[in-house]
């Protein structure tokens, strides 16, 4: 994404995102915890293949993101995005009621109706944004962690007192679908078959297919192909590997098999796609990858 921020040795980064950032249409796979505040405009995105819309005055949360695609954004869209390594998020949340934290992250978007709450969240987020520019010291993790912990506490206190459901209970289908998406980011490089993931999840391929259709409207194989082609696109844009090596690393029998798969998914050959995207500054566009 169009930002120079990176996750530092403090364990987090605050990204100032706007409509001019080069993120629309890109599928991002990551394993970070994210809390964001939409300060202007609106954005529509897919989170683990489920379409969500966020607008000004909304807080956005998702734990351990696996697959995120920004579909569209209004010209005035702006957001402060806190991206955290799992260890930072988990350690910072120690002592905060687990059920309330699960409730917050189980509901990706919520309008913050109380202006005082919104200003407090903005103040804490801006504090983290400022603090990431400080030199790292022995107390840096504790200081940054306490700021994030305060954000959690504010959300837990205010959302726990609303009329909204206090906790989100996930069905077996929800859990299996999320686990499937998480498994994909780690294994899709070499494992392309539905049966592989079904076996790990201890369910039948047919049931996994039914879950995927229920939760995303897509077949399991289609989801696997979507994640796979997203990772291959990234390798092609980076330009560090030949097509032959990409084919080998991603489990294809040869370069021709890779080309057939890629053309079917994208509509152009891998080489044509590389030529179309050779000007992309990948270092600026993959902060969460």
Give a verbal description of the structure.
- Helix 1 packs across helix 4 (140-160), helix 5 (172-187) crosses helix 7 (205-216) and helix 8 (220-238) packs across helix 10 (255-266).
- Strands 1-8-3-6-9 form a 5-stranded antiparallel sheet. The chain has a 4-stranded antiparallel sheet with strand order 2-7-4-5, with no helix packed on it.
- Mean pLDDT is 80; it is low at 1-5, 162-169 and 279-289.
- It contains 12 helices and 9 strands.
- The protein is an alpha+beta fold and 289 residues long.
- It starts with 11 loop residues before the first strand and ends with a helix.
- The chain folds into 2 domains: 12-160, Regulatory protein AraC (Jelly Rolls); 172-285, Arc Repressor Mutant, subunit A (Orthogonal Bundle).
- The protein has helices at residues 86-92, 98-106, 115-131, 140-160, 172-187, 194-201, 205-216, 220-238, 243-249, 255-266, 270-276, 282-285, and strands at 12-18, 27-28, 33-40, 42-47, 50-55, 58-62, 68-73, 78-84, 109-111.
- 48% of the residues lie in helices and 17% in strands.
Keywords summarizing the entry:
four-stranded antiparallel beta sheet; disordered C terminus; alpha+beta; Arc Repressor Mutant, subunit A; Jelly Rolls; five-stranded antiparallel beta sheet
In short:
The chain is α+β, with helices and mostly antiparallel strands and 289 residues long. The chain has helices at residues 86-92, 98-106, 115-131, 140-160, 172-187, 194-201, 205-216, 220-238, 243-249, 255-266, 270-276, 282-285; strands at residues 12-18, 27-28, 33-40, 42-47, 50-55, 58-62, 68-73, 78-84, 109-111. Helix 3 (115-131) runs antiparallel to helix 4, helix 5 (172-187) packs across helix 7 and helix 8 packs across helix 10 (255-266).
């Amino acid at each position: 994404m169009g930002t120079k921020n990176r996750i530092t040795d403090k364990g987090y980064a605050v990204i100032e995102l706007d409509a001019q950032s080069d993120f629309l249409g890109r599928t991002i796979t990551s394993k970070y915890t994210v809390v964001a505040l939409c300060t202007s405009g609106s954005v529509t995105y897919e989170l683990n293949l489920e379409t969500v819309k966020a607008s000004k005055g909304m807080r956005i949360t998702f734990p351990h993101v696996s697959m995120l695609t920004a579909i569209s954004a209004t010209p005035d869209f702006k957001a402060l995005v806190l991206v955290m390594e799992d260890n930072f998020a988990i350690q910072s949340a120690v002592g905060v009621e687990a059920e309330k934290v699960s409730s917050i992250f189980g509901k990706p978007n919520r309008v913050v109706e109380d202006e005082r709450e919104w200003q407090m969240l903005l103040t804490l987020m801006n504090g983290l944004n400022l603090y990431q520019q400080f030199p790292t010291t022995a107390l840096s993790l504790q200081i940054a962690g306490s700021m994030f912990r305060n954000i959690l506490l504010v959300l837990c206190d205010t959302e726990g007192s609303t009329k909204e459901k206090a906790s989100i209970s996930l069905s077996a289908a929800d859990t299996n679908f999320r686990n499937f998406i998480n498994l994909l980011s780690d294994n899709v490089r070499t494992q392309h078959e539905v049966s592989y993931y079904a076996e790990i999840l201890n369910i039948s391929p047919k049931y996994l297919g039914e879950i995927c259709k229920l939760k995303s409207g897509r077949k399991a194989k289609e989801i696997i192909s979507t994640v796979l082609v997203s990772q291959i696109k990234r390798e092609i844009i980076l330009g560090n590997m030949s097509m032959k090596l990409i084919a080998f690393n991603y489990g294809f029998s040869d370069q021709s098999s890779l080309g057939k798969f890629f053309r079917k998914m994208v509509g152009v050959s891998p080489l044509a796609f590389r030529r179309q995207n050779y000007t992309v500054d990948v270092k600026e566009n993959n902060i969460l990858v």
